[in-house]
Design goal:
- The protein has helices at residues 20-24, 26-29, 36-44, 62-68, 81-92, 130-143, 164-173, 185-194, 200-210; strands spanning 52-56, 73-78, 99-103, 116-122, 144-155, 212-220, 224-231.
- It is an alpha/beta fold.
- It has a single domain (15-157, 197-231), classed as Vaccinia Virus protein VP39 (Rossmann fold), CATH 3.40.50.150.
- β6 and β7 form a beta hairpin.
- The radius of gyration is 17 Å and the shape is globular.
Length: 232
């Protein structure tokens, strides 16, 4: 897609993700999340050892490098040059030669090769406004084989508009005081103000309209959704 109305993905990537110092501390800030459940979900839905898996908005590669120990090929895609630098650093130090690193975005990634078995994306799709989420999801469906799996984790709002103030107040109350080891109330406020988390009751129809059946949906609290979807 190269229309003049095309979104500038880098401008929407979140300025912190473009900052090398932030990227260097990123895994510590987010508490070294364990991608084991995500890998297990792909296996449970038929992605085998010969599978090819795409990670969109891969960040520093927490999922991609763990997945490369299990699946034949993993492609780690991120729009941020700083994140891509971190990914390439890990790939070049021999952590895994099975991770291909590509600088591109949800809307601009061009896949070479056959249809994918799975796509994983964690805490990245909310960078796109809703219209662009639907375009991104449709592109993902187009990259997967029928029966291929989409595993999405994101900050998705599982509440009614009238509950927003109370839910956000609770969220802030549990924030970290230390910006190097967690997300602070300022980080949460910036997320709400400048990023594009959507409601669960909007997101699920978007998945359906893009060609996915939701096989599993799980929420932690009212803000963090995990979906395992199968491409029709
Ligand atoms: C919060 S980080 C999550 C990184 C990783 N998925 C993880 O869970 O550790 C969001 C990532 O999405 C990337 N990103 C933002 N907009 C993007 C886009 N349009 N296409 C691809 N990646 C994007 C950022 O550069 C950043 O690396």
């Amino acid at each position: 897609m190269s229309a003049p109305w095309m979104l500038d993905e880098l401008a929407h990537a979140g300025p912190e993700h473009l900052d090398e110092e932030f990227v260097a501390n990123f895994d510590r800030k987010q508490g070294f999340p364990d991608p084991g459940d995500d890998i297990e979900a792909l296996r449970r839905h038929g992605v085998g050892a010969e599978g090819t898996v795409l990670d969109l908005g891969a960040g520093t590669g927490r999922f991609a490098f763990a997945a490369a120990a299990v699946f034949r090929r993993v492609i780690a895609v991120d729009i941020s040059p700083a994140m891509v630098g971190a990914l390439r650093g890990r790939a070049e130090t021999g952590e895994s030669s099975q991770v291909d690193v590509v600088r591109a975005g949800f809307l601009s990634y061009r896949h070479e090769g056959g249809p994918l078995d799975a796509i994983h994306t964690r805490h990245a799709l909310h960078q796109l406004p809703d219209f662009w989420k639907t375009i991104a999801l449709r592109r993902m469906a187009g990259l997967l084989r029928p029966g291929g799996v989409l595993r999405v984790r994101d900050l998705v709002y599982d509440f009614a508009p009238a509950q927003a103030e109370a839910v956000f107040a609770d969220w802030m109350a549990g924030a970290s005081e230390d910006a190097t080891r967690g997300y602070t109330a300022d980080d949460y406020a910036e997320h709400i103000r400048t990023e594009h988390s959507t409601y669960r009751w909007l997101f699920e129809p978007m998945l359906d309209a893009a060609g996915f059946d939701i096989a599993e949906a799980h929420y932690e609290g009212r803000l963090f959704g995990t979906y395992t979807c199968v491409r029709r």
